[in-house]
Amino acid sequence: MPRTTFRGSAVPLDVTDDDSVTAAAELIAEREGRLNVLVDNAGITGDTPRNNPPPWTPPSPEL
Predict the structure, then answer these.
(1) pLDDT tens digits for the chain (63 residues)?
(2) Structure pTM?
(3) 9 Cβ partners below 8 Å, 6+ apart?
(4) What is the rounded CA–CA span in Å between residue 35 and residue 31?
(5) Helix, strand, coil: what percent of the chain each, to 5?
(6) Residues with Cβ < 8 Å from 48, sequence gap 6 or more?
(7) Based on the number of CB atoms within 10 Å of its own CB, is 11 exposed (0-12), middle (13-18) or buried (19 or more)?
């Protein structure tokens, strides 16, 4: 079986800042020519429902 090598890189950006997103896209285009895979790993900080969800309640048997 032929061996395949994959290469990856990270480009930090602020998804709330249009200029940051544009700069990252331009850097990727310049460096790689195209984008094959994107992993969205945006973090959320602070006390939000997402970070502090209510206790889990199992679904009712009727569902």
Answers:
(1) 788 887 788 888 888 889 999 999 999 999 988 888 888 776 656 555 566 667 777 777 765
(2) 0.53
(3) 31, 32
(4) 10
(5) 25, 0, 75
(6) none
(7) middle
